[in-house]
Design brief:
Elements: H1 2-14, H2 23-33, E1 38-39, E2 48-49, H3 51-60, H4 70-73, E3 78-80, E4 90-95, E5 98-107, E6 110-113, E7 122-125, E8 129-130, E9 133-140
Parallel strand pairs: 1-2
Antiparallel strand pairs: 3-9, 4-5, 4-9, 5-6, 6-7, 8-9
Length: 141
């Protein structure tokens, strides 16, 4: 029951945003459909995800092949400035110059991601810090 309530609340929030068009928006729509699925390290669907598994599959639905690694994904596409983020851009976080987390930017300071073990795919506030990790950069695929 909690998963259903969590999912419906998150989907209602997602409906507020203009998700745009293009590859990033296709990936974003896919990732939003996974809201409520559990995080499992190394998982890439169809109902269990880690952060890069989710983004890899999401962009796969848009015809883009990405590796199953946040650090490797950070080398794809075009670098995007923080003030130029658009729906569907990948946002990366890390520590000591090592990228270890990726999410998909939605809009208005929000992102969808598979955050960590024990959590579920969800929409979260996008800030310069993700737990102990710092914002590393963004890419448009």
């Amino acid at each position: 029951f909690r998963r259903v309530l969590f999912r419906s609340k998150s989907l209602a929030e997602a409906a507020k945003y203009n998700l745009g068009s293009g590859r990033g928006s296709i990936a974003l729509r896919f990732s939003i459909k996974q809201i409520g699925d559990r995080y499992v390290y190394g998982a890439a669907g169809p109902t269990l995800w880690d952060c890069s598994g989710l983004t890899m599959r999401a962009f796969g639905t848009a015809g883009v092949s990405l590796p199953h690694s946040a650090a490797a994904q950070s080398r794809y596409g075009k670098r995007v400035a923080l003030n130029q983020l658009k729906p569907g851009d990948l946002v990366f976080f890390g520590r000591n110059r090592y990228i270890s987390h990726v999410g998909i930017y939605i809009s208005k300071g929000r992102m969808v991601n598979a955050p960590r073990p024990g959590s579920r795919v969800k929409i979260m506030k996008f800030t310069p810090n993700f737990g102990s990790l710092s914002f590393y950069g963004a890419r448009r695929i």
